[in-house]
Amino acid sequence: MTFGSALKLVLFLLAGDGLLALWLTGELPLPLAAAAGLLLLLGWWAEPLRSRGLPPAPFLAAIPGLLAIGAILDFLFAAEALLIVAVRLLLGLTLYTCWTMRTPPDRWRLALLSLMAVVAAAGLTTRPAFLATFAA
Known about the structure:
Blueprint: H1 3-24, H2 30-43, H3 46-51, H4 57-78, H5 82-100, H6 104-124, H7 129-135
Helix pairs in contact: 1-2, 1-5, 1-6, 1-7, 2-5, 4-5, 5-6
């Protein structure tokens, strides 16, 4: 296994750990967590898919704006607290970064977003099962 492949594996495992930590808080419903897990898994093959034009570049360029609008609407109408809005936004940004990762700064961004997800989940739960994902 080359260094690049090993680094990608570690980053995706860290992103998966962040997703699992967020799901264990109970703030992400199972369907949303399952869909995010599937998108994370498919993100592993994002590079060959992008070279074939899937998903289209204009769609990828619109996602950050859609995430921002979604966070504002979530804050205004759905979420109980600002931390929950931040957690859901972190999840969206993590998945977006998995699908658009090309350069070393993108890898750093994915690592930091995943770490922030684990830390944010720590503020949302006191479940004993969370300790296992935090220690991983």
